[in-house]
Design a protein that fits this description.
246 residues, alpha/beta, Rossmann fold, OB fold (Dihydrolipoamide Acetyltransferase, E2P), 2 domains, 32% strand, elongated
Length: 246
């Protein structure tokens, strides 16, 4: 069982999340429900959870400020938040997980499954990156945090030529001819890169940087030739949308 603590200042949000977890995530045991960040902080230190669901906007101390009390993160985190475009972008670029309120049961189950599959726990540097981004919200995002089996790497998005799916992992091929394997599905990497408008899903197995395309070759779906000399198949269903971008 995954021991979880829920932290949210709104009682109805705690109640709703508790009900959803019991119905859709039977592998989660709720060990505490906290109505403030300070209460949550004490519960985390005392009960040593495997996972916390953390609301971002709370009076007094918000969810991000709560995390500043930890030099080492020994638990998984799923942020819960109402829509705040910049905060969500910062979370996504830091390779952290979040759920939008009202929480969708399917998205909840997917997020919990990641924890059950024992993905690498977040590291302090990811939160430092997140907090730095939030404190400098006029600073453009140009790098993403890419989780790997060893930790995570900071990669400039414009250095990525293409992304290739490999089951629950994704290979990122970079301009310098190196490859980074992310502990993320291609769908998750696509989500992380979507704010960089040059990245497009062209196939169920590929996301490409359009700035790195040198040629499109016609065919049933056709294929792309990239600046690194690789070729990437284009699916029939995505061909028309891709050609419109060109």
């Amino acid at each position: 069982m995954i021991k979880a603590i829920l932290i949210d200042d709104e009682l109805h949000c705690l109640d709703t999340l508790s009900i959803l977890l019991k119905e859709y995530c039977p592998g989660v045991q709720i060990i505490a429900q906290c109505r403030s960040a300070n209460e949550g902080l004490q519960a985390i230190k005392k009960q040593k959870p495997d996972l916390i669901f953390l609301d971002i906007e709370m009076p007094g101390m918000n969810g991000f400020e709560l995390l500043e009390h930890f030099t080492e993160i020994s638990f998984a985190i799923i942020f819960t938040t109402s829509y705040d475009q910049y905060a969500i972008k910062a979370i996504r670029f830091s390779a952290l997980d979040y759920l939008l309120k009202p929480i969708d049961p399917t998205e909840l189950a997917i997020a919990v499954k990641k924890v059950e599959e024992q993905r690498p726990l977040p590291v302090a540097e990811q939160f430092q990156m997140l907090l730095k981004r939030l404190q400098n919200n006029d600073h453009p995002f140009n790098k993403i945090a890419v989780p790997t089996v060893e930790g995570f790497e900071m990669i400039a998005a414009d250095n990525v030529v293409r992304c290739e799916a490999d089951d629950n992992y994704t290979h990122l091929f970079l301009k310098n001819k190196t490859k980074v394997t992310a502990c993320r599905t291609l769908k998750e990497m696509e989500e992380q890169l979507r704010d960089f408008l040059s990245f497009v899903r062209v196939h169920h197995s590929y996301v490409v940087n359009l700035n790195e395309v040198t040629k499109y070759v016609r065919g049933e779906g056709g294929y792309l030739v990239m600046t690194d000399g690789s070729t990437v198949n284009v699916s029939r269903s995505r061909k028309e949308a891709l050609l419109k971008l060109f």
